[in-house]
Design a protein that fits this description.
mainly beta; eight-stranded antiparallel β-sheet; 8 strands
Length: about 150
């Protein structure tokens, strides 16, 4: 039987000088699937108007992302677990010093997780596409995370 292990929802907002605002909302769901492992779904939307944001050259930044992950069940004779994560994001940049543009980001991670996520090795691929201003590019990399 599947059971929910973690749910979270958040909404935050900030106003300064009556014309500077930042608003964001996010949600997280992690669910155990019994002997089949567990899944994670996460999403966020945000709007920054003259108050921070993704690209400081623009007064208004809006965007969001959706992430999905699957943590495989433990495998025999292996001390850790394999996790597959995918993420897609989109952001729009307006009212800036340069031409307005959109950015789409996609990412796939293959993680090997030890010790309740305190140690993790990752292989990742990221793709960045722009409607203007910037040049499209991609990255492939390896990562290591160790927490004490």
């Amino acid at each position: 039987k599947a059971s929910v292990t973690h749910e979270a929802r958040n909404f935050a907002g900030q106003i300064q000088n009556s014309d500077q605002t930042a608003v964001n909302a996010d949600a997280l769901l992690e669910k155990k699937l019994g002997d089949l492992g567990s899944v994670t779904v996460e999403a966020e939307v945000a709007k920054y108007d003259k108050l921070g944001g993704y690209d400081a050259r623009y007064n208004t930044n809006t965007g969001g992302y959706v992430l999905g992950g699957y943590l495989l069940p433990p495998m025999m004779d292996m001390p850790g677990r394999v996790e597959i994560v995918g993420k897609v994001g989109r952001a729009t940049f307006t009212k800036g010093v340069l031409k307005n543009y959109d950015q789409t980001t996609s990412e796939v991670n293959l993680n090997y997780v030890l010790k309740d996520f305190k140690t993790r090795a990752s292989l990742f691929f990221q793709n960045f596409s722009f409607s203007g201003v910037n040049t499209n590019y991609w990255k492939v990399g390896l990562g290591l995370q160790v927490q004490m």
